[in-house]
Amino acid sequence: MNLWNKWTEWRETAKQKRISDMEQQGKCPDCKGRGIHIMPNEYFQTDPLHCPGCNGSGMYSDWTGGNY
């Protein structure tokens, strides 16, 4: 297994752990339950003060409705 595959596997494991932790807390994994999702990227096309994953509620149940 090369370094790229190990890194990719590690990133996927970390992502799944973060999603699991946020599910237990009832929070949106994208905004960490805050309802806002600020991305430091000039190409971000939506309102940075509104999390598109949970529609600004910060709740995990709203995040699962249309995401992963």
Automatic annotation (TrEMBL):
GO molecular function annotations of the record: aminopeptidase activity
Gene3D superfamilies reported for this sequence: 6.20.20.10
UniProt entry keywords in alphabetical sequence: Aminopeptidase, Hydrolase, Protease
InterPro entries hit by this protein: HSP_DnaJ_Cys-rich_dom_sf
The organism's place on the tree of life at top rank: Bacteria
Keyword Protease applies: yes
Protein name according to UniProt: Methionine aminopeptidase
Organism: Salibacterium lacus
